[in-house]
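ok here's the first one, seq then struct tokens
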Amino acid sequence: MDLIKKHLPILIAAILGGIIGAIVMRNLIPPPAPQSGGGFTFKGGEAQPIDCKTTEEKMTIAGSSLAGILKDGQEVKVIKGYYNCKDANRGDVVVYGYAGGTQPLAKVVKAIPNDKLELKKSGAGWNILVNGAPAKTSGGTPYNISEQGFRLLSLYIKDYGGVVPGNAHLIMGDEIGGSLDSTRFGLVDKSDFIGKVAR
């Protein structure tokens, strides 16, 4: 009994500290975001409806990284906001808001969340395997990326056990060796997709 009395203030302080800490942490850390396709986002602890409205805008392709799919100077229709309430599919041509540039990029989705991602040595470069099969250009040739692209994508494979994590996507140009795409800036989050190119 004396032992309990002796340590009672410390026990009370520990319990109160835990309760206060839990309250503070609850207010500092927002609740997890919903899984894609849920239709709601959370802000301040309350569900907020996601804006599913889309708009159409004409854009002009600049550059040749998608030459087998879209030509330099070609005008395309972009459905902006398309991915706010829809998942991206393999083969979608997306407009991506690249933080490192002044212009958005048009790229092809090659891997989506939960796909298995691997890299396999091939000649002087590396093939990207998605669910065991080589990712290919529109002409049917497997991508053969450089050591730099290999090192970058290897980090994701190592960190996520070879599985594309939720909301992340592998997006590529149509050039065999890669272009300004996931081989240069890594996997990208769906929230950075400006829209879908309608074809």
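and now the second one, same deal
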Amino acid sequence: MQASLEQQLNSIDRQEREEAFKRLTALFASGAIVLPDSGHAFNLHCHSFFSFNGYGYSPTGLAWCGRKLGLRAMALVDFDVLDGVDEFLETAASMGLRSGAGMETRVFVPEFAEDEINSPGEPGVAYHVGIGFVSSTVKDPVLLHYLKALAQNRTQTIIERVNTLLHEIRLDYQRDVLSLTPNGNPTERHVCAAYDNKARALFPDQAALANYWSSKLGVPADVLEKPIDSPPVLQGMIRAKTMKSGGVGYIPARGEDFPRLADVNRFILENGAIPTFAFLDGTSSGEQRMEELLDVMVASGVAAVNIIPDRNWNIANPEIRALKVRKLGEFIQQARDRDLPILVGTEMNAHGQRLVDDFDAQELKPFAAVFEEGMYILNGHTVLERAGGRGYMSAWAKDTFNTVRDKNAFYREAGKRAVPGVKLQLGDGDTPEALLGRLTGG
């Protein structure tokens, strides 16, 4: 029963997810399901199926997964949408899981128009994060509508191009692709899944299926035997061969196609969230000018940074690994020098990515404390922003703290003390000390 209910948590139907969650939590309350106590691990960058999750997790499924793993905290970060924010925060709070929620998108950085930043091969274009949203409903949703339309137009163009190659299994955007999404936000990975599904239906014989993909992807049929047994692997190959550079469906990203950094940060700040710079690995031409890049980011409103540590240290090539570990350390030091909270996670937007970082790895151990600080700051922000607009970027915070370091210390302590799921009542004259006392019942 538990396995069936856990599968239902990831249904596209919200009502089915809610029903499964109610039944699972009832089983937990009765002692029929045992969940571990909160440990020290956390994941602050998890995509759900509202953009794409490599394991099919919904926001509710993610929260249950985090609680089942004994995580101390988890944050939702979907691409171009905030559709899962309310569901995730409510579910996490009800399970006693510290939480946060945000959105990742791509922006144009005019000052670095000639440099690659963190989007390989795409000068001036940067992946960017807004973290700490507390509602799916936002002020002035024009930007969200624009991002969704931009993404949908791009996806439809990719399908039109790839259909010329895969004409035997050509896709219909409405019927074959949108049906795989809960709220009409398809990505390249959804498109690959749709092509995979149609090919398997057309070629039920495995040898015929291997021969088909061999002819289309330019890969020997015997090399495709294992990928065909693992759909996520095959779909990754389809994406790499047809939609990335050199593929028939590849669409180069141009800076002018994306909203400007300043405009996106304005939207993030208007909605009480934290503009966050997304670090890649320190090797691009833009990230090699990190001090200048961070100056531009901070001037535009950035107040935190995001890292996906696993791609900086978990690398087989020892020389590349050593370089990226060194760059990781250098970046962390620069972020600390600027008192920028550091938020880390694994993304989970491709099958095979870790569910949580290995903080015991020798490359990450030196940074464990600063990663933990970022986790508590995000939780403290989320609790206080949800309670009444007293989050990390609020007017109250600006008026209350003389330095960023003082602000960090307060939100870190608030994030430690806050009991997940317990609602906080705010008063007009609250001091930081009074708030901290109330968070612990004092």
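notes on #2: Residues 1-34 form one domain. The CA atoms of residues 177 and 191 lie 6 Å apart.
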